[in-house]
Amino acid sequence: MRISFIGAGRVAHHLAKALQARHQIVQIYSRTYEHADVLAQAAGAEAAYSFSALKSEIDLLIIAVSDSAIADVIQAVHPYLPNTLIVHTSGSTGISKLTQAHARAGVLYPLQTFSLEREIDWTQTPLFIEAAEPQDLMMLSTLASELSQRVYPYSSAQRLSLHLAAVYACNFANYCYDMAKQIVDEQQVDFSLLYPLMLETAQKAAAADPKTMQTGPAMRGDQNIIAMHTLMLEQANRPDLKQVYALLSEQILQRHQPEQI
């Protein structure tokens, strides 16, 4: 399959390199040509200077840009590739953003966090596909199955629920790690001492219902410990961390209130 990309960020970087093993990556376009050129060289492709320079002899165009740019990109690209299957990689943008301008539209959404310095295990990364045309859904299913053992034909609404849940499970969880590091850094304590706890927590949440795995002073209703922690944050002059601690503790208390009786 001949595939081109619009976007040269983290998602495009990982996806292009993964697809390169079985398919021909034809072109990469980015608003910053230098970024497109770097990814093009890594994927054995050609960097495109403009939308009008995109070659029409391709089977698939993947739009891997910010959600806010998707609508503008499809409007700009459609005249040059009117008959090509064009997909975006967003979890929070409906397929309708594409179908409003382009008939052969689809979605190829990897539920994963991407960093340029870390490799991705594509075989275990869930891939969610959607397409306006049945034959295009079959094409995306075949393509996705070459990468992952976990491919799901989900609707835009289902994908959006996953994207929101991922913000809690990934982005917010990582910020909690960041806050934890700030606390121990203040006392020159080695943050790596928390690694076994962090890994065990993630493994338990993956093995069972996270609600049943909840532990800690808020879950137990231990107001003495909560008050002590709150005082520590006050003395450290960290109203930001105190606010988050109070909010999360209150939510956990409410979630597990019947268990505390």
Summarize the structure in words.
It is a single chain. The protein has 261 residues and is α/β, with parallel strands linked by helices. It has twelve helices and eight strands. It folds into two domains: 2-154, Rossmann fold, CATH 3.40.50.720; 160-260, ProC-like, C-terminal domain (N-(1-d-carboxylethyl)-l-norvaline Dehydrogenase, domain 2). Helix 10 (223-235) packs antiparallel against helix 11. The longest helix is centred in the middle third of the chain and has 31 residues, at 156-186.
The helix count comes to 12
**Which runs of at least 5 residues are low in confidence (pLDDT < 50)?**
none
Query: In CATH terms, what is the architecture of the largest domain?
Result: 3-Layer(aba) Sandwich
Q: Do you know the CATH topology of the largest domain?
A: Rossmann fold
Kindly report the spatial arrangement of strands forming the biggest sheet.
3-2-1-4-5-6-7-8
Strand content: 5-15%
Instruction: Report the sheet with the most strands, covering strand number, pairing sense and barrel closure.
Output: 8 strands, mixed
Distance between the termini: 61 Å
Radius of gyration, CA atoms, in whole angstroms: 23 Å
Number of strands: 8
**Estimated structural class:** alpha/beta
Overall pLDDT confidence: 95
Shape: elongated
Following the backbone from N to C, one meets helices and strands in this order, namely EHEHEEHEHEEHEHHHHHHH
Q: What is the CATH C-level name of the largest domain?
A: Alpha Beta
* Number of structurally distinct domains: 2
Pfam family, one: DUF2520
Domain DUF2520: 126-251
Protein name: F420-dependent NADP oxidoreductase
Keywords: Oxidoreductase
